[in-house]
Amino acid sequence: MHKEGLFIARLLLGVPFIVWGALKLRGDEAKLVPGLQALGIPDAGFFAYLIGVCELVGGAALVLGYPVRTASVLLGVWCLVTGYDAHKGNITELLKNVTMAGGFFALAVAGPDTISLFGGAPAGIFAYLP
User: Fold this and answer.
1) DSSP three-state, residue 32
2) Most exposed among 5, 49, 100, 125, judged by the fewest C-beta atoms under 10 Å?
C-alpha cells in the first residue's frame, strides 16, 4: 500500500502543476504578466512563459517519478515564494500554498518508491541526479 499511496500523492501534487503550466503556455499567461510587471520584472511576458514551462516540467517530473526529490524541493520552495508574493493579502490562498509546500517536502523525504520511471532507482548517468 505504501508505493500506491506515494504514487497517488505524486499524482495529486503533480497533475495540477501540469494543468497550470499547460494553461500558461496556451495563453493564460496574460493574467500573470501585470503582476510580474508590478514587481518590476523586465520582459514579463517571457517570464510568464518560463513560469509555465517550470510548472509543466515540475509536475511531469512528479507524475513520472523522476527526479522526485529535486522536483519536490523546487516546487515546495516555489509554492512558498508564490504564496508569499502573490497571496499575502489572502490568508486562505497563502495557507493553501504553504500546505502544498508541506506535501512537496514530505514527498521529497519519502522519495518516489517503485511505481516510477526507472523503478525509483535510475542507472547510468541518471543515477547522478538527486
Assistant:
1) coil
2) 125
